[in-house]
Design brief:
This protein has helices spanning 42-50, 92-102, 107-120, 136-149, 166-183, 194-200, 218-223, 228-233, and strands at residues 4-13, 16-26, 31-35, 57-62, 65-66, 77-80, 154-158, 186-191, 203-208, 211-216, 238-245, 248-251, 254-257, 269-274, 279-282, 289-298, 303-309, 315-319, 333-338, 344-347. By secondary structure, the protein is α+β, with helices and mostly antiparallel strands. The chain has a 6-stranded mixed β-sheet, sandwiched between helices. A 5-stranded antiparallel β-sheet has the order 13-12-11-14-20. A hairpin with a 4-residue loop joins β16 and β17. α4 runs parallel beside α5 (166-183). The longest helix has 18 residues, at 166-183.
């Protein structure tokens, strides 16, 4: 199996800096997702690996070999695009076979490889159909089979699920992960969908303005975001304005103990970023931040409670799981108790 390594990769488009010196190593057989908003540099990073863009500086290596100046067709990479990019005049089998024919593989070997790939993506029964006769999910499976047929060293996935509806997207996401794990192929996926990245990845690289803000497992990125940007982008966050104190953030006279306070001078204005599941509800006279319940939202596996805090503009969301009681009704007075163990602090500009 093969590694994919970026070292100091920088890319600009006129005055716009797309990548500011990307360092990233995808381990053999690993699936890393580059996650971030539009314009963060994630797709540029993918296209540089594929050879469709040339870096201004830095290098890309596959299996220890510098491929930075190698033509795209010589890089032995499989790529799946958002738009499928199937040949409309070719059958499913012929689409999958296309890359093999350009490599002049013998016909018997081509036929065997096509058969294997269609079995892997579970489309053997549709081998003779044409793209217009397939659903979006089936077309994307064909695109995946075509990319894998050439036995690439690295698989590149450029927003492969974004054009599909939610149910198909979830099913195909799991299918891609199954196939990737089965084949053990080193994979780099680009997405703006945090749920997709959290559900499919070995590690996630969160990008912003050409920088890799954090690289870690889905659990690490979600539970221990390294920056306020990552905290906001991955999952939901409540934001509470307060002042830094000794080992705590003071929010309207209530001290919230948190290690994150140590990075800010005492008395400085900060925002405390806390996930909904790190808030809980208690009696209004039992401590915590007093407020009024404004809404409850049942979501099946959990229930979210919206609370308007006294004296603050903040409307916070509390994930109570299945702990909703008859007292938790709209208009009820309540106190929000903050667990600051996993909170993130951000300085407030003067």
């Amino acid at each position: 199996m093969t590694t994919l390594v970026y070292t100091g990769v920088r890319k600009t488009f006129g005055p716009t800096v797309a990548l500011q010196g990307l360092d990233l190593a995808v381990k053999p057989g690993e699936l890393i997702s580059l996650l971030g908003p539009s314009g963060c540099g994630k797709t540029t990073a993918l296209r540089i690996a594929a050879g469709f863009e040339k870096a201004d500086s830095g290098r890309v290596e596959v299996g220890g070999k510098d491929i930075s100046h190698m033509a795209p067709h010589k890089r032995n990479m499989g790529m799946v695009f958002q738009s499928y990019s199937l040949f409309p005049n070719l059958s499913v089998a012929s689409n999958v076979e296309y890359g093999l024919k350009t490599r002049k593989l013998p016909k018997p070997e081509c036929a065997k490889r096509v058969k294997e790939m269609l079995e892997i993506v579970q489309l053997s029964h549709l081998a003779d159909r044409y793209p217009h006769q397939l659903s979006g999910g089936q077309q994307q499976r064909v695109a995946l089979a075509r990319a894998l047929a050439i036995q690439p060293e690295v698989l590149l996935l450029d927003e492969p699920l974004s054009a599909l509806d939610a149910k198909v997207r979830l099913s195909l996401r799991d299918e891609i992960r199954r196939i990737q794990t089965t084949l053990g192929i080193t994979t780099l996926l680009v997405t703006h969908d945090q749920e997709e990245a959290l559900g499919i990845s070995d590690r996630i690289g969160v990008m912003s303005h050409g920088n890799l803000e954090q690289l870690g497992t889905p659990i690490e990125v979600y539970r221990h975001p390294s920056t306020a940007f990552v905290a906001r982008f991955v999952g939901s966050m409540n934001e509470l304005v307060g002042q830094s104190a000794d080992g705590a953030i003071n929010v309207r006279g209530v001290a919230v103990p948190t290690a994150a306070a140590s990075a800010h001078p005492a008395g400085s204005a900060v925002k405390l970023l806390v996930r909904p599941e790190d808030l809980s509800l208690g009696p209004v006279d039992g401590g915590g931040l007093p407020g009024t319940i404004t809404q409850t939202t049942f979501q099946g596996s959990t229930t979210l409670v919206g609370v308007r805090l006294d004296g603050l503009d903040s409307l916070v969301t509390v994930d109570v799981g299945h702990a909703l009681t008859a007292e938790h009704v709209v208009g009820a007075r309540i106190a929000v108790v903050v667990n600051g163990d996993r909170a993130v602090c951000e300085a407030v500009a003067a």
